[in-house]
Backbone:
């Protein structure tokens, strides 16, 4: 008798979901730490040097400042996203099996990595601009 896709793996669903959510929370937590401690110092340094950072980077730094100032709100939003992520992962794991849930998890992690790379490149380009302005 066919019991559907990966019904034997349902026993591991809670542990897999907790592990996945922990993995999915790593980069947003790092972004939050950056917003709380690094971004304000970075903004003060830029203001002190009188460098125009551009609209995109300026908007990102202002967003970081807001998330640092209203950390409780950022934590609440992150908790809601992680809860939705956990529900989606668990539903995929139970209905479609481990491979679909793994695809979802990989997609979330790759999007987080892409956003992190974008932030790093933007900050690096701004630092190059600051260095060029000082010479």
Residues:
């Amino acid at each position: 008798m066919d019991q559907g896709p990966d019904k034997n793996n349902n026993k591991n669903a809670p542990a897999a979901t907790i592990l996945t959510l922990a993995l999915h929370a790593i980069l947003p937590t790092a972004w939050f730490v950056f917003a709380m401690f690094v971004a304000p110092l970075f903004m003060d340094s830029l203001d002190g040097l009188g460098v125009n950072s551009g609209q995109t980077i300026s908007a990102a730094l202002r967003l970081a400042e807001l998330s640092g100032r209203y950390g409780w709100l950022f934590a609440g939003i992150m908790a809601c996203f992680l809860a939705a992520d956990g529900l989606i992962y668990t539903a995929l794991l139970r209905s479609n099996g481990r491979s679909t849930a793994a695809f979802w998890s990989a997609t979330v992690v790759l999007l987080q990595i892409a956003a992190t790379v974008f932030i790093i490149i933007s900050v690096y380009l701004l630092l190059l601009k600051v260095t060029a302005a000082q010479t």
